[in-house]
Design goal:
binds adenosine-5'-diphosphate, binds magnesium ion, NAD(P)HX epimerase activity, single chain, alpha/beta, ten-stranded mixed β-sheet, nucleotide-binding, lyase, binds ligand NPW, ATP-binding, 286 residues
């Protein structure tokens, strides 16, 4: 077991190269938000944009279009019933499931068209539908972001057994494509390659609807711009709860949108730390 530390995140978030453009920082496609759960994709997208993804597209029920545009002018919107296949092709990272409800046709399209070189983050309703329909993981770089009940459904590990690290590893071995597992709870754990990383920041001020949608959007935004994937996921999980912990000093609850708004300043702090640690830069300043 490894503590998911500030240092791990600071090693990922370094200053940007001057010679770069939006294409450098990846294209995130968010697929979710049925007619009743559009807020979930708004929270996904807000977190992905604030994390610094170069481009963000939301494929959703079209009734959500005006609300998304009104809240997030940075984001492009397409109809998930008609425009999904060609939109998936253009993405580096696809996040599917937040607020998707029972739209199994949409989920099947994503699973059928995702490519091995793409990152696929599977959240919320997608995990529940995959469990119900007994669907397999596709050949892609997969990140699973279940809460405890979703992991009980999809990983078939009871919530009581999830306290045992070996029970979660046993479930993961059954998946052929070695997914990264972000097992969310009041003590979130990340299972990555052969190690389990324990989150030690965050708290009950985060227990509000949309908190996981925000985390999934951050994982997508970080995965789009920081390689390799494993450390990017760890950094996103750490920053999400570290920001909440910072905000909780002056706030009883830390709302998802407030966390998302605080992401760029927090990332800048980490990037500045990496400059001050760099011996070459220190020399130049002398
Ligand atoms: N604004 C929006 O659009 C929002 C849209 N959302 C979207 O809604 C979709 C459904 O997601 P969901 O998580 O709300 O429902 P579901 O999958 O049925 O799980 C709940 C069941 O699991 C149980 N449970 C046990 N342990 C748990 C744990 N640690 N954490 C959480 N639950 C735990 C829990 O127990 P109970 O509370 O009943 O004691 C209950 O029985 C999904 O796509 C999501 O993205 C939401 O993000 C909200 C904001
Ligand atoms: N008591 C708590 N302490 C720390 N983190 C919490 C606590 N309660 C919830 N969280 C975090 O909030 C998020 C909830 O995710 P999820 O249930 O998927 O939310 P939603 O689907 O409503 O967006 C997870 O990241 C979880 O770790
Ligand atoms: Mg969720």
């Amino acid at each position: 077991m490894i503590n998911l530390s500030h240092e791990l995140a600071a090693n990922v978030i370094t200053p940007r190269n001057r010679d770069s453009f939006k294409g450098t920082y990846g294209h995130v496609l968010i697929v979710g938000g049925n007619a009743n759960l559009g807020g979930a994709v708004i929270m996904n997208a807000q977190a992905a944009v604030q994390s610094g993804a170069g481009l963000v597209t939301v494929a959703t029920d079209l009734t959500n279009k005006t609300a998304i545009h009104a809240r997030l002018p940075e984001v492009m919107v397409v109809d998930y019933q008609s425009d999904l296949t060609q939109t998936i092709k253009k993405a580096d990272v696809v996040l599917v499931g937040s607020g998707l409800g029972e739209e199994i046709g949409v989920l099947n399209q994503v699973l059928a068209h995702i490519q091995p070189k793409q990152t696929l983050i599977i959240d919320g309703s997608a995990l529940t539908m995959m469990a119900e329909q007994n669907l397999s993981l596709p050949n892609a770089k997969v990140v699973l972001t279940p809460h405890q009940m979703e992991w009980q459904r999809f990983g078939e590990v009871t919530i009581a057994d999830q306290a045992r690290e070996d029970a979660n590893w046993e479930a993961l071995i059954n998946f052929k494509t070695e997914p990264i597992l972000v097992l969310k709870s009041s003590a979130t754990q990340v299972y990555l390659k052969d190690d389990m990383y324990q989150l030690t920041v965050g708290g009950p001020y985060q227990a509000t609807g949309g908190m996981g949608d925000t985390l999934a959007g951050m994982v997508a935004g970080f995965a789009a711009q920081f390689q390799p994937l494993g450390p990017a996921v760890l950094a996103a999980v750490y920053c999400h709860s570290a920001i909440a912990e910072d905000l909780s000093k002056a706030a009883y609850v830390t709302l998802p949108s407030t966390i998302a708004a605080a992401i760029p300043a927090y990332m800048q702090r980490l990037a500045q730390e990496s400059i001050s640690k760099d011996p070459v830069d220190t020399k130049q300043e002398e």
